[in-house]
Amino acid sequence: MDVLIGCASTGSHLSGTAKYMKSRKPGVHVIGVEPEGSVVFGGTYKPFLQNGTGLSFRPGNLLESYIDEIIKVSDHDAFATCRRLARTEGLLLGGSSGSVLHVAALIAHRMRRPCNIAVILPDNGMKYLDTIYDDQWLRKHGLHGAIAGEDAVMTGDRPATRRVPLAEVELPVGELQ
Ligand SMILES: Cc1ncc(COP(=O)(O)O)c(C=O)c1O
């Protein structure tokens, strides 16, 4: 494994997994993902629609020293990824999983050499049939574009995702915007 990608709310599962993986392979590059508007890794709070992931305050049990990079993902990109994967791969996933896979696609898209990316997908989509998988709900929240499943990786026209490096590391991937 070269890259580990996981989302964070309390930061517990990502911190524990990252700590273990780095004990086995110190060079593994760990990417923490949170919704735009969440302040787990810092920033200014604003409401977001992704469930399970993200917080309005900084959690006490986050082990930041094991996380090399953070990426904030918009509701649009998380949900568009869910919708696309349901349609093209038959995967019914929750929004936090969508945000993680959006980042995985972003990283894969900009890689300089082949590498192995592991992702942690916290839940499936059964709880979200009347939200993420409901066109009317998406429209009500101004997320019309997510219905078609086009995220910023596909359209390439909207820097909805930001890269915020926590440490100087040897990246196996190309520079992100
Ligand atoms: C669907 C989902 N995504 C992400 C998370 C975030 O996990 P953690 O609190 O370990 O950061 C949770 C936690 O319950 C969750 O239920």
Itemize the secondary structure elements and their pairings.
Layout (H helix, E strand, L loop, with lengths): L2 E5 L4 H13 L4 E7 L33 E5 L1 H15 L5 H15 L7 E3 L15 H6 L3 H4 L4 H4 L6 E4 L12
Parallel strand pairs: 1-2, 1-4, 2-3
Antiparallel strand pairs: 3-5
Helix pairs in contact: 2-3
In short:
With 177 residues, the chain is an alpha/beta fold. The protein has a single domain (3-165), classed as 3-Layer(aba) Sandwich (Rossmann fold).
Order of neighbouring strands in the sheet with most strands: 4-1-2-3-5
Low-confidence stretches: 158-177
CATH architecture: 3-Layer(aba) Sandwich
Note the overall shape: globular
- The third-level CATH topology is Rossmann fold
Q: Helices and strands, in N-to-C order? A: EHEEHHEHHHE
Assign the structural class, choosing from mainly alpha, mainly beta, alpha/beta, alpha+beta, or little secondary structure. Answer: alpha/beta
Which ligands appear in the coordinates?
pyridoxal-5'-phosphate
| Main sheet summary | 5 strands, mixed
Number of DSSP-assigned strands: 5
Radius of gyration: 15 Å
Mean pLDDT figure: 88
How large is the share of residues in beta strands? 5-15%
Distance from first to last alpha carbon: 24 Å
Helix content: 25-40%
CATH class value: Alpha Beta
Instruction: Provide the domain count.
Output: 1
> With helices defined by DSSP (H or I, 4 residues minimum), what is the helix count?
6
Features:
single chain; globular; binds pyridoxal-5'-phosphate; five-stranded mixed beta sheet; Rossmann fold; disordered C terminus
